[in-house]
């Protein structure tokens, strides 16, 4: 019998906490480890398949992260280490929010639905399982990142598992189309389909026929990889976020494979398979970057613009650090973040540039202290007010008429029957945040944009306390 006095502390969930999503990330610290100690998770007294990552900071302190799935209703969760255990009761009930996200696997006419892969497990069913799990993981990530900002674990609702969507677009035509053209075609087609029932729906689609033709000239730059790939997209806005499936082969389809997938060091054979890892060249890097891209582009369908840093900026590659305990730093090239909202001139958000002097030292310190994955303050404010995250009595569904407006002459932003909570000015060309004002600590119905700010070439974004939004080019 072990005589060490163990302790499990700093657990990030609380007893009787309620969740509106199924996949939970639990973090904690084990004090006073012993040689034979093992972390175990039980739900309702049953061993539960979970993704675990346990790393030890030093001899007396060890961190752990566990990803597990809640069943509907009450879940009695026991976390045990050696002879010590702690228990919490967690409750999962779907939010009931009619504002929801529907995931789709888009199959072009003439295509068999098999995504490009290095295994034979690449059929429609496999793709839908991977996509469903991936979106549930993103759902959990949004909740964790809003919680870290102090807004509670708010997140979006998913209407159900990923559905196959058979498009009328011939697969050969899709190979000649840009991501913008693909977005335009599929967005229109989905809106005219039987799947679209209400304005309270948004969609996230993955194109089955993305095809990487391979590279034989040893030019493995991202620009060349993209040139050799057809039916590819990473574009979000309005009611649709659209993605290619070139790296879907690196995604897991089971919960307990998530952490191994992020940590997978297997090298991508770039002569045969698409590598979208921001120059990490590994399966784990591809999974992290492409899930990060989903987080970013979904941010656009939730009306977020670009920020210098964070998920909506240059830090979308580090999603692996959220769900794992990676002790090493990753010196990745900086991203040039361009505007990806449809119907505007798209810039390539995946291009990289030479790192600025001193940036590595700053990022090294950040990575040692955190997971380097966050929403900037203005983005977090928008999400926690957004109707896709905040449905309830406060959304003013059936109450008085609300209106948001801008007087171009006086530069006053005004709300009627609501209060202003956030005003942003974004660059019209690339969607980058220029200025913002928040009014979380007071009720404000009118705000004058300062005279010294030139409004030419900018876009105004406003959200009120009910989640109503005004977007206007200036």
Automatic annotation (TrEMBL):
It comes from the Eukaryota. This is Peptidase M12B domain-containing protein. It comes from Aedes albopictus (Asian tiger mosquito).
């Amino acid at each position: 019998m072990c005589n060490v006095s163990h302790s499990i502390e700093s657990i990030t969930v609380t007893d009787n906490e309620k969740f509106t999503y199924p996949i939970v990330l639990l973090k904690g610290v084990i004090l006073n480890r012993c040689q034979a100690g093992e972390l175990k998770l039980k739900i309702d007294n049953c061993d539960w398949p979970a993704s675990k990552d346990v790393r030890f900071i030093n001899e007396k302190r060890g961190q752990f992260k566990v990803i597990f799935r809640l069943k509907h209703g009450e879940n009695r969760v026991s976390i045990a280490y050696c002879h010590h255990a702690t228990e919490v009761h967690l409750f999962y009930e779907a939010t009931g929010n009619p504002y929801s996200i529907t995931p789709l696997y888009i199959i072009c006419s003439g295509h068999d639905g098999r995504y490009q892969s290095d295994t034979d497990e690449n059929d429609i069913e496999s793709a839908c399982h991977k996509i469903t799990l991936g979106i549930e993981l993103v759902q959990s990530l949004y909740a964790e990142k809003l919680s870290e900002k102090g807004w509670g674990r708010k997140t979006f609702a998913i209407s159900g598992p990923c559905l196959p969507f058979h498009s009328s677009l011939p697969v050969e035509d899709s190979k000649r189309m840009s991501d913008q053209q693909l977005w335009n075609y599929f967005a229109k087609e989905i809106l005219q389909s039987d799947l679209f029932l209400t304005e309270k729906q948004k969609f996230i689609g993955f194109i089955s026929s993305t095809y990487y033709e391979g590279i034989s000239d040893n030019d493995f730059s991202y620009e060349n990889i993209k040139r050799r790939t057809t039916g590819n997209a990473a574009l979000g806005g309005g009611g649709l976020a659209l993605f290619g499936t070139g790296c879907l082969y690196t995604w897991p389809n089971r919960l307990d494979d998530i952490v191994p997938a992020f940590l997978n060091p297997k090298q991508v054979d770039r002569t045969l398979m698409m590598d979208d890892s921001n120059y990490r060249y590994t399966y784990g890097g591809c999974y992290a970057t492409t899930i990060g891209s989903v987080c970013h582009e979904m941010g656009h369908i939730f009306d977020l613009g670009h920020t210098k840093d964070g998920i909506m900026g240059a830090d979308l590659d580090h999603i692996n650090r959220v769900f794992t305990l990676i002790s090493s730093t990753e010196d990745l090239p900086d991203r040039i973040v361009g505007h990806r909202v449809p119907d505007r001139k798209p810039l390539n958000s995946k291009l990289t540039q030479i790192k600025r002097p001193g940036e590595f030292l700053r990022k090294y310190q950040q990575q040692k202290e955190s997971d380097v994955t966050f929403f900037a303050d203005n983005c977090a404010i928008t999400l926690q007010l957004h109707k896709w995250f905040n449905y309830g009595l406060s959304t003013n569904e059936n109450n008085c008429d609300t209106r948001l407006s801008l007087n171009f002459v006086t530069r006053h932003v005004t709300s009627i029957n609501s209060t202003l909570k956030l005003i942003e000015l974004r660059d019209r060309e690339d969607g980058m945040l220029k200025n913002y004002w928040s009014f979380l600590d007071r009720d404000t119905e009118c705000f004058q944009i300062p005279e010294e700010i030139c409004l030419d070439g900018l876009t105004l974004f406003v959200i009120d306390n009910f989640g109503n939004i005004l977007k206007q080019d200036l």
